[in-house]
Design brief:
mainly beta; 2 domains; four-stranded mixed β-sheet; elongated
């Protein structure tokens, strides 16, 4: 991250990586106390996740990479900043009551042999299951290895491929030992998976949790109880 000052509303430019489907992107605030905006997208592949921030005059460019040599440009933004600015690492949980940590390795000046290239994602991207629905099961954990405390976590991960929130009110999940109907006003954020989790030893309770890193830095979540 490059900042004009350490004030909360300072203009900044940052190449950012997230653990979710947002992946890597360029995040920037061009004016003091203005809104931060994002651009670009590059899938993360931890631990092979590289970020690069480049400045030429007042133009800041963000890049993402799998190997630190071949880069994809995330975006470019023009911000009026002095010659001397603050440069450093940033990490956020996007929850004021939840601390978080991050590990940064191989911090270095960009080598001279790097290139900007089209990089193929080694993983298939999530998408809709058919033309009639944007919703897909992106991950299922069913009958995992037994835990010593007996709390065997099972879950379904539901993915919304739309670029907008999807209302799943009245949608049903039915199987041999569960019948669940989503209550009114239940939505899944755009292109972010939501997770339905339950503990086998207390299967009468189901927790539905979905979260989205929004522009304001807030978290959206919902909790439901099994019928």
């Amino acid at each position: 991250m490059a900042r004009n000052s350490l004030d909360a509303g300072s203009p900044f430019a940052a190449a950012v990586a997230t653990p979710g489907l947002n992946g890597e992107f360029l995040n920037a605030r061009t004016t003091t106390n203005g809104l931060a905006a994002t651009s670009g997208n590059f899938p993360v592949n931890y631990p092979h996740t590289w970020l690069r921030l480049n400045r030429v005059g007042n133009v800041f460019n963000g890049f993402g990479s799998y190997d630190g040599t071949n880069w994809t440009q995330l975006g470019s933004v023009t911000i009026a900043m002095p010659n001397q600015i603050y440069l450093g690492f940033a990490v956020a949980s996007h929850n004021t009551n939840q601390p978080t940590t991050a590990q940064f390795v191989n911090y270095e000046t960009t080598p001279t042999n790097v290139v900007v290239a089209t990089i193929t994602n080694p993983h298939d991207a999530n998408g809709p299951t058919s033309r009639t629905t944007p919703i897909a099961f992106s991950e299922i954990m069913w009958k995992p290895a037994p835990r010593t405390d007996g709390k065997n976590l099972e879950f379904l991960e539901i993915y919304n491929s739309n670029p907008w929130f999807q209302d799943i009110s009245s949608y049903q999940l039915t199987c041999a030992d569960m019948n669940y109907t989503f209550p009114p006003n239940t939505t899944i954020p755009m292109r972010v998976p939501g997770t339905i989790r339950w503990i086998a030893s207390t299967s009468c309770f189901i927790r539905f949790l979905t979260s989205l890193m929004m522009a304001s830095g807030s978290m959206a979540s919902a909790f439901c109880t099994a019928l």
